[in-house]
Amino acid sequence: MSSSDLAFEIAAIRLVDTHEHLQPAGAWRENGPDILQDLFGHYAWHDLVSAGLQPDALERLLNPASGSITARFNDIREAWERTQFAGYGEAIRLSAHHTYGIDEITAEALEAAQPIVASLQNDAERLRLMREVALLDHVQIDDMQWNRVPEPLSPEFFTYDLSMWSFCRGEIENEKIAAETGVTVTDLDSLRNAIASIFLKNAPHSIAVKSQHAYDRSLAWEERTEAEATHALQAVLRDGGTSIDRAVLGDWCWARSIEHAIEYGLPFKVHTGMFARNGRMTIAWVRPGHLTKLLARYPEARFVLMHIGYPYGDELISIAKHYANVWVDLCWAWSIDPYSSSDFVRRFIHAAPVNKLFAYGGDTMWPTNVLAYSLQARRWLTKTLEAEVAAGDLTEKQAITIAERIMRRNQFECFDLL
Ligand SMILES: [Zn+2]
After folding, report:
1. Cα(62)–Cα(37) distance, rounded to whole angstroms?
2. The Amidohydrolase-related domain covers which part of the protein (predicted)?
3. From the CA of 108, how far away is ligand 1's center (Å)?
4. Distance from the alpha carbon of residue 189 to the mean position of ligand 1, in angstroms
5. Which segments within 225-367 are labelled E, that is strand?
């Protein structure tokens, strides 16, 4: 085999997409992005802000009503030039090239591409971009809800996480809970019933359970007694509680959610690693190492630790090596830091069981972005495994087997899709 066989295989494997915040078909059709929102409206603008873009220029960039494409692009051109080589910038360049035929991003090229993005904003193109162009097997969507409306076209392609985010951050959304379950939470028993009812209604239609409460509190977890949880719940119901009350209540709700996830056979996805956006990351909260007490407490659960715990990749490899109930997901990681992700994959292969790694989730909102991020993942995975073959650490046949595993087979095993 030549190295092109490996590249050919990686390009052809129908990839499982374990994580998107894909907007519903109606939003794409009726309120889809213009060319600037499409290219820069995902994580890319976070880098523009880090590079010094001012809030008013950012507001104009993301608001088509604020001016022409040329004027809005000219405002951000300097910040774009500063960020174009970072991972989000690479995703933009891949999208520009593959979807819009743009090799150099200029105001003229963007003006010319606007009719193309408009022509893609219908249900058939939405599905084609993801299923036929990105060559995805299916997408797993975190819409941060408990239930959702089925997709009009190919509902089997669109699967959903059951979000337990609000509970895990120790927030009781009583109005929403009552609308969903008929239960008003007043004490620990009614809270237990509400959580059970949400799972009973929605777990059978979900692919996994999800929480990203590392945005709100530390991932550190403690077993909480009924008395501790009752005390914290009363404080939260009274006035929102302190951060300690919410952490205690969140720990209790998280434990009950994991017990239901086990009961319904659903993996539990946890956001680990860095925050999106700017100026608010508490990096001490996001370490996957905070999870070890929880992982030890629930050996029969299946935990999917997301985003390679960036920048705590080595810590996560150690956890995946030690805990049989942990899987590791490269979702969002290739675009955050492609070199570290590539290095992470090589370290993982030579340290941990290769059945526990997932290659891709874009973590984006629009099908065009899903395509761009999947192209980036395939590109870097190809470079990574080619480097392994060139180093003599894998044969090409072994590299192809690993690609097939981490792009698809591991997900089928973990999410019970076989
Ligand atoms: Zn996400």
Report:
1. 5
2. 257-386
3. 33
4. 31
5. 268-271, 303-306, 326-329, 357-358
Mean pLDDT value across the chain:
97
Task: Determine the number of helices (DSSP H) and then strands (DSSP E) in the chain.
Answer: 21, 8
Tokens of 346: 């090589």
Contacts of 288 (CB under 8 A, 6+ apart): 219, 272, 273, 305, 309, 312, 315, 316, 319
pLDDT for 2 beyond 70: no
Q: Ligand 1 centre and the CA of 275: distance in Å?
A: 10
What is the reported pLDDT for 1?
A: 46
Ligand 1 centroid vs 398 CA: distance in angstroms? 31
Closest C-alpha among 346, 386, 380 to residue 360: 380
Distance 364 CA to ligand 1 centre (A): 7
Beta-carbon contacts of residue 411 (< 8 Å; ≥ 6 apart)? 16, 18, 358, 417
Q: What letter does residue 147 receive in the DSSP assignment?
A: -
3-class DSSP assignment, residue 409: helix
Give dist(CA 326, CA 194) in Å, integer.
Answer: 28
Among candidate residues 123, 104, 144, the one with its CA nearest the CA of residue 25: 123
Strands 15-20 and 357-358, sheet pairing: unpaired
- For residue 369, what are the contacts with CB-CB under 8 A and spacing of at least 6? 38, 42, 91, 95, 362
Specify whether the backbone of 352 is left (phi greater than 0), alpha (psi in -120 to 50) or beta. Answer: beta
- How many whole angstroms from 211 Cα to the centroid of ligand 1? 10
Residues 149, 198: Cα–Cα separation, whole Å: 16
Span from the CA of 19 to the centroid of ligand 1 (angstroms): 6
- pLDDT tier at 147 (50, 70, 90 boundaries)? confident
Give me the helices (H) in 174-223, please: 174-181, 188-202
Query: Is pLDDT above 80 for 8?
Result: yes
Q: Which two tokens stand for residue 402?
A: 């690993």
CA distance 48 to 43: 9
The reply to whether the predicted model has a pTM over 0.85 is yes
Tokens representing residue 132 in the block? 């036929």
Between CA 179 and CA 416 the distance in angstroms is: 31
